[in-house]
Amino acid sequence: HPQWHTLETELRVFNLTVIEAMLRSYTKVLFVRDPFQRLISTFMQGMGSSTSFSSFVQDVLNSGQQNTSVTWKPLVSLCQPCLIRYDYVVMFGFLRQELGHVLQRAGLPADSLLPEFTDAQVHWTYSWLSEQMFSKLSLQQKKRLSHFYHWDLSAFPFSSSLLSD
Predict the structure, then answer these.
(1) 155/91 Cα distance (integer angstroms)
(2) 90: three-class secondary structure by DSSP
């Protein structure tokens, strides 16, 4: 359906019948990442206007889930995984393995299309960085962040997330 294929069009502008037809016609892939790692990444990229990570987290918590930036908004509220049946959920940290599988299932040559990933190094670096940043937060901030991302932590297997505790 060519009328659906415009970059500017958001799903919400269509009626339910058209949305359902569109979703049946696409392969749906959801990329997910530990919410705490998303926060760290956003802070490191300078999206946080605060001077410290703790102040940045406080700003995020104070903004509330409805008024928050899409860069740290809970994934469940952005991607609606309870309403949309995704064909694949790709976890950050397993990109090479999972994307290769998705490409093969789509009938594409996985090896020639994928860039070189350093998942193991990235995973180790983010684990270390997460622990360092987490230690800078107050107990109240840790609890509020766990509550803020409760649905993400329930919907996706972030077993090693510091917010799961």
Answers:
(1) 12
(2) strand
What is the rounded distance in angstroms from the CA atom of residue 160 to the CA atom of residue 148? 17
Would 60 be classed as within a structural domain?
no
Bridge-partner residues for 30, per DSSP?
A: 89
For residue 155, list its beta bridge partners: none
User: Domains in the chain: how many in total?
Assistant: 1
Distance between CA 82 and CA 145 in Å, rounded? 22
Q: Is residue 33 part of a domain?
A: yes
**Joined tokens for residue 14:** 């269509």
- Determine the structural domain holding residue 76 and report its residue range: 11-37+68-155
- Interior/surface letters 89-114, b for 16+ CB within 10 angstroms, e for the rest: bbbbbebbebbbeebeeeeeeeeeee
Instruction: Tell me how far apart the alpha carbons of residues 55 and 69 are, in angstroms, rounded to a whole number.
Output: 16
Backbone dihedral region of 152: left (phi > 0), alpha (psi from -120 to 50 degrees) or beta? Answer: alpha
Residue 125 phi, psi (nearest 5): -60, -45
The pTM score is 0.76
**What percentage of residues in the chain have a pLDDT greater than 90?**
19
Mean pLDDT lowest among 36-45, 51-60, 84-93, 136-145: 84-93
